[in-house]
Write a structure and sequence with these properties.
The protein is α/β, with parallel strands linked by helices. It has a single domain, classed as 3-Layer(aba) Sandwich (Rossmann fold), CATH 3.40.50. It has 10 helices and 6 strands; from the N terminus they run ααβαβααβαααβαββα. The protein has a 6-stranded parallel beta sheet, with helices on both faces.
Protein backbone atom coordinates (compact mmCIF):
# COMPACT_ATOMS: atom_id res chain seq x y z
CA UNK A 1 0.00 0.00 0.00
CA UNK A 2 1.58 3.26 -1.19
CA UNK A 3 0.88 6.32 0.94
CA UNK A 4 1.78 9.18 -1.45
CA UNK A 5 0.92 12.03 0.93
CA UNK A 6 2.95 10.82 3.89
CA UNK A 7 5.88 9.65 1.80
CA UNK A 8 5.97 12.82 -0.33
CA UNK A 9 5.98 15.02 2.77
CA UNK A 10 8.73 12.87 4.24
CA UNK A 11 10.68 13.07 1.00
CA UNK A 12 10.52 16.87 0.97
CA UNK A 13 11.92 17.00 4.48
CA UNK A 14 14.49 14.32 3.69
CA UNK A 15 15.97 16.43 0.92
CA UNK A 16 16.79 19.05 3.54
CA UNK A 17 18.12 16.38 5.86
CA UNK A 18 20.47 15.02 3.21
CA UNK A 19 21.68 18.52 2.39
CA UNK A 20 22.79 19.11 5.96
CA UNK A 21 24.37 15.73 6.58
CA UNK A 22 22.64 13.85 9.39
CA UNK A 23 24.59 12.35 12.28
CA UNK A 24 21.90 10.35 14.07
CA UNK A 25 24.06 9.26 16.99
CA UNK A 26 25.46 12.70 17.83
CA UNK A 27 24.34 14.87 20.71
CA UNK A 28 22.46 14.04 23.90
CA UNK A 29 21.28 10.49 24.49
CA UNK A 30 17.64 9.44 24.67
CA UNK A 31 17.35 9.91 28.42
CA UNK A 32 18.73 13.45 28.31
CA UNK A 33 16.41 14.50 25.51
CA UNK A 34 13.39 13.04 27.29
CA UNK A 35 14.32 14.76 30.54
CA UNK A 36 14.17 18.08 28.68
CA UNK A 37 10.68 17.27 27.37
CA UNK A 38 9.08 16.14 30.62
CA UNK A 39 6.68 16.65 32.23
CA UNK A 40 4.21 16.22 29.39
CA UNK A 41 0.75 14.72 29.09
CA UNK A 42 1.72 13.51 25.63
CA UNK A 43 4.81 13.31 23.45
CA UNK A 44 4.15 13.17 19.72
CA UNK A 45 6.98 11.52 17.81
CA UNK A 46 6.82 12.34 14.11
CA UNK A 47 8.60 9.98 11.75
CA UNK A 48 9.43 9.49 8.09
CA UNK A 49 7.65 6.21 7.46
CA UNK A 50 10.40 4.54 5.42
CA UNK A 51 13.33 5.55 7.66
CA UNK A 52 14.61 2.62 9.78
CA UNK A 53 16.59 4.94 12.04
CA UNK A 54 13.38 6.75 12.96
CA UNK A 55 11.85 3.47 14.07
CA UNK A 56 14.99 2.75 16.12
CA UNK A 57 14.48 6.05 17.93
CA UNK A 58 10.83 5.16 18.54
CA UNK A 59 11.85 1.89 20.21
CA UNK A 60 14.46 3.69 22.31
CA UNK A 61 11.96 6.30 23.48
CA UNK A 62 9.40 3.64 24.43
CA UNK A 63 12.03 1.74 26.40
CA UNK A 64 13.31 4.87 28.15
CA UNK A 65 9.85 6.12 29.16
CA UNK A 66 8.82 2.65 30.32
CA UNK A 67 12.01 2.27 32.37
CA UNK A 68 11.15 5.52 34.18
CA UNK A 69 7.63 4.28 34.91
CA UNK A 70 6.49 7.30 32.89
CA UNK A 71 4.73 5.66 29.94
CA UNK A 72 0.94 5.67 30.34
CA UNK A 73 0.22 4.22 26.89
CA UNK A 74 1.66 3.90 23.40
CA UNK A 75 -0.71 5.25 20.73
CA UNK A 76 -0.22 4.43 17.06
CA UNK A 77 -1.14 5.97 13.74
CA UNK A 78 -0.39 2.48 12.42
CA UNK A 79 -3.47 0.87 14.00
CA UNK A 80 -7.13 1.88 14.04
CA UNK A 81 -9.14 3.10 17.00
CA UNK A 82 -10.99 0.27 18.71
CA UNK A 83 -8.03 -2.12 18.65
CA UNK A 84 -5.56 -2.35 21.55
CA UNK A 85 -3.52 -4.71 23.70
CA UNK A 86 -5.37 -4.11 26.96
CA UNK A 87 -5.77 -7.35 28.87
CA UNK A 88 -2.87 -9.11 27.17
CA UNK A 89 -0.06 -10.41 29.40
CA UNK A 90 3.45 -9.01 29.06
CA UNK A 91 4.73 -12.34 27.71
CA UNK A 92 2.16 -12.52 24.90
CA UNK A 93 3.41 -13.56 21.45
CA UNK A 94 3.98 -11.04 18.68
CA UNK A 95 1.33 -12.80 16.59
CA UNK A 96 -1.23 -12.26 19.36
CA UNK A 97 -0.31 -8.58 19.58
CA UNK A 98 -0.71 -8.19 15.83
CA UNK A 99 -4.10 -9.87 16.01
CA UNK A 100 -5.24 -7.64 18.87
CA UNK A 101 -4.26 -4.52 16.93
CA UNK A 102 -5.64 -5.89 13.62
CA UNK A 103 -2.24 -5.05 12.19
CA UNK A 104 -2.12 -4.15 8.48
CA UNK A 105 1.20 -5.65 7.39
CA UNK A 106 0.87 -4.39 3.82
CA UNK A 107 0.67 -0.78 4.98
CA UNK A 108 2.94 -0.95 8.03
CA UNK A 109 5.69 -3.61 7.99
CA UNK A 110 5.87 -5.27 11.40
CA UNK A 111 9.65 -5.50 11.17
CA UNK A 112 9.70 -1.69 11.31
CA UNK A 113 7.20 -1.07 14.10
CA UNK A 114 7.16 -4.35 16.01
CA UNK A 115 10.20 -3.50 18.18
CA UNK A 116 8.58 -0.34 19.60
CA UNK A 117 5.21 -2.03 20.04
CA UNK A 118 6.68 -5.06 21.78
CA UNK A 119 8.85 -2.88 24.04
CA UNK A 120 5.64 -1.36 25.39
CA UNK A 121 3.87 -4.71 25.69
CA UNK A 122 6.80 -6.32 27.52
CA UNK A 123 6.75 -3.40 29.96
CA UNK A 124 3.05 -3.93 30.66
CA UNK A 125 2.06 -0.71 28.87
CA UNK A 126 -1.11 -0.74 26.74
CA UNK A 127 -0.73 -0.16 23.01
CA UNK A 128 -3.66 1.69 21.43
CA UNK A 129 -4.81 2.05 17.86
CA UNK A 130 -5.27 5.79 17.35
CA UNK A 131 -6.05 6.21 13.66
CA UNK A 132 -9.45 6.80 12.12
CA UNK A 133 -11.11 3.47 11.21
CA UNK A 134 -11.26 2.87 7.46
CA UNK A 135 -15.01 2.31 7.74
CA UNK A 136 -15.41 6.00 8.61
CA UNK A 137 -13.33 7.45 5.76
CA UNK A 138 -16.17 7.95 3.28
CA UNK A 139 -18.41 9.73 5.77
CA UNK A 140 -15.58 12.03 6.85
CA UNK A 141 -14.79 12.95 3.24
CA UNK A 142 -18.35 14.22 2.82
CA UNK A 143 -18.65 16.02 6.17
CA UNK A 144 -18.19 19.82 5.92
CA UNK A 145 -17.74 20.20 9.69
CA UNK A 146 -14.12 19.20 9.20
CA UNK A 147 -13.61 22.37 7.13
CA UNK A 148 -14.11 24.37 10.34
CA UNK A 149 -11.69 22.60 12.70
CA UNK A 150 -8.55 24.48 11.65
CA UNK A 151 -7.99 28.26 11.46
CA UNK A 152 -8.31 29.56 7.90
CA UNK A 153 -4.57 29.87 7.16
CA UNK A 154 -3.89 26.43 8.64
CA UNK A 155 -6.68 24.89 6.55
CA UNK A 156 -5.17 26.38 3.39
CA UNK A 157 -1.73 25.11 4.41
CA UNK A 158 -3.14 21.64 5.01
CA UNK A 159 -4.81 21.68 1.59
CA UNK A 160 -1.51 22.67 0.00
CA UNK A 161 0.24 19.88 1.88
CA UNK A 162 -2.29 17.45 0.37
CA UNK A 163 -1.52 18.79 -3.12
CA UNK A 164 2.23 18.44 -2.61
CA UNK A 165 1.87 15.12 -0.87
CA UNK A 166 0.11 13.72 -3.92
CA UNK A 167 2.75 15.17 -6.22
CA UNK A 168 0.35 17.64 -7.82
CA UNK A 169 -1.54 14.76 -9.46
CA UNK A 170 -4.68 14.77 -7.32
CA UNK A 171 -7.71 16.34 -9.05
CA UNK A 172 -8.61 19.65 -7.44
CA UNK A 173 -12.08 18.27 -6.71
CA UNK A 174 -10.45 15.78 -4.34
CA UNK A 175 -8.43 18.29 -2.31
CA UNK A 176 -11.25 19.19 0.08
CA UNK A 177 -12.37 15.59 0.74
CA UNK A 178 -8.79 14.41 1.27
CA UNK A 179 -8.07 17.34 3.58
CA UNK A 180 -11.13 16.42 5.62
CA UNK A 181 -9.79 12.89 6.01
CA UNK A 182 -6.41 14.18 7.14
CA UNK A 183 -8.07 16.41 9.73
CA UNK A 184 -10.34 13.57 10.84
CA UNK A 185 -7.31 11.35 11.36
CA UNK A 186 -5.63 14.04 13.46
CA UNK A 187 -8.80 14.48 15.51
CA UNK A 188 -9.04 10.73 16.12
CA UNK A 189 -5.46 10.61 17.34
CA UNK A 190 -6.04 13.61 19.62
CA UNK A 191 -9.12 11.92 21.10
CA UNK A 192 -7.10 8.78 21.75
CA UNK A 193 -4.40 10.75 23.57
CA UNK A 194 -6.90 12.52 25.80
CA UNK A 195 -8.70 9.29 26.67
CA UNK A 196 -5.42 7.58 27.62
CA UNK A 197 -3.98 10.45 29.67
CA UNK A 198 -2.95 9.79 33.27
CA UNK A 199 -1.85 12.42 35.82
CA UNK A 200 1.92 12.52 36.15
CA UNK A 201 2.52 10.15 33.24
CA UNK A 202 2.95 10.50 29.47
CA UNK A 203 1.16 9.03 26.46
CA UNK A 204 3.47 8.53 23.47
CA UNK A 205 2.11 8.85 19.93
CA UNK A 206 3.97 7.40 16.96
CA UNK A 207 2.84 9.01 13.70
CA UNK A 208 4.04 10.64 10.53
CA UNK A 209 5.61 14.08 10.85
CA UNK A 210 2.67 15.79 9.20
CA UNK A 211 0.34 14.48 11.89
CA UNK A 212 2.42 15.88 14.76
CA UNK A 213 2.88 19.35 13.22
CA UNK A 214 1.86 21.83 15.91
CA UNK A 215 0.30 24.20 13.35
CA UNK A 216 -1.65 21.67 11.29
CA UNK A 217 -1.88 18.31 13.02
CA UNK A 218 -2.91 16.56 16.23
CA UNK A 219 -1.90 19.43 18.59
CA UNK A 220 -4.54 21.64 16.96
CA UNK A 221 -7.23 19.35 18.36
CA UNK A 222 -5.97 19.23 21.94
CA UNK A 223 -6.85 21.78 24.66
CA UNK A 224 -4.21 24.30 25.65
CA UNK A 225 -3.96 22.89 29.15
CA UNK A 226 -3.06 19.46 27.77
CA UNK A 227 0.75 19.55 27.87
CA UNK A 228 2.01 18.30 24.52
CA UNK A 229 5.51 18.11 23.07
CA UNK A 230 5.82 17.59 19.33
CA UNK A 231 9.04 16.01 18.07
CA UNK A 232 10.23 15.92 14.47
CA UNK A 233 12.62 13.09 13.71
CA UNK A 234 15.32 14.21 11.28
CA UNK A 235 18.36 16.48 11.25
CA UNK A 236 18.52 19.43 13.65
CA UNK A 237 19.39 21.94 10.91
CA UNK A 238 16.81 20.63 8.44
CA UNK A 239 13.97 20.78 10.97
CA UNK A 240 15.15 24.18 12.19
CA UNK A 241 14.42 25.84 8.85
CA UNK A 242 12.35 29.03 9.25
CA UNK A 243 9.16 27.39 7.96
CA UNK A 244 9.49 24.42 10.33
CA UNK A 245 10.58 25.90 13.66
CA UNK A 246 6.98 26.54 14.73
CA UNK A 247 5.91 23.04 13.71
CA UNK A 248 7.94 21.11 16.29
CA UNK A 249 9.12 21.64 19.85
CA UNK A 250 12.27 19.67 19.15
CA UNK A 251 14.19 18.23 16.21
CA UNK A 252 15.52 14.80 17.18
CA UNK A 253 18.49 13.73 15.03
CA UNK A 254 17.87 10.56 13.03
CA UNK A 255 19.05 9.38 9.63
CA UNK A 256 16.60 9.77 6.72
CA UNK A 257 15.16 6.92 4.72
CA UNK A 258 16.31 5.86 1.26
CA UNK A 259 16.51 8.52 -1.44
CA UNK A 260 13.51 7.39 -3.49
CA UNK A 261 11.46 9.42 -5.97
CA UNK A 262 8.04 8.62 -4.52
CA UNK A 263 6.33 10.89 -7.03
CA UNK A 264 7.77 8.83 -9.90
CA UNK A 265 6.43 5.71 -8.20
CA UNK A 266 3.02 7.32 -7.73
CA UNK A 267 2.91 8.42 -11.37
CA UNK A 268 3.84 4.92 -12.54
CA UNK A 269 1.03 3.40 -10.45
CA UNK A 270 -1.50 5.75 -12.06
CA UNK A 271 -0.66 4.65 -15.60
Amino acid sequence: MFRPFTFRLAALLSCAVLATGCASRAGPDTGQRLAALLPADAILLGEQHDAPDHQRVQRDVVQALAARGQLAALALEMAEQGHDTRGLPADVSEAQVQAALQWNEAAWPWRAYGPAVMAAVRAGVPVLGANLPRAQLRSRMADPQFDTLLPGPALKAQQQAIRLGHCGMLPESQITPMTRVQIARDLAMAQTLRAAAQPGRTVLLLAGRGHVDRLLGVPQHLPREFQTKSIGLGADKALSAPDLTASFDLAWPAAPGPDIDHCAQFQAQRR
